[in-house]
Amino acid sequence: MKYVRENRFWTITGLETFILGMLFGLENNFIDQPPHMPVFVKLVDDPPFAIVLMIVGFYVTLISLSKHFTEANKAVVTFTLLFIWTFYFIIFLLHDIVGSFTIPRYTTIITGFIVLRVMVESVWGVSH
Length: 128
Description:
73% helix, transmembrane
């Protein structure tokens, strides 16, 4: 129970990552395709990306619930989560810009807050 309390943020973020992967895996073309969208943006919600997201989310959740969540593991988890969520934030922002939306859509806003949360927790979170 001690590890659950100490690492609750990382557990929740791991679950969010896993759920994003499940959503991409279950939903065909989650990211709609506005005209003139770069090719790589059209691929980021395909099954290979979904599987990677689910694996990373499962790993982060599992490791954060154990006593093996050391500083080295925390650094790997932080880097991986920041990379993934920043990548999707940029993809969603690019999607909004190319799609001529006047304000950012909810996916862009939510991923932006997740990136901010991961950065704040990595700096000011509980250390072992």
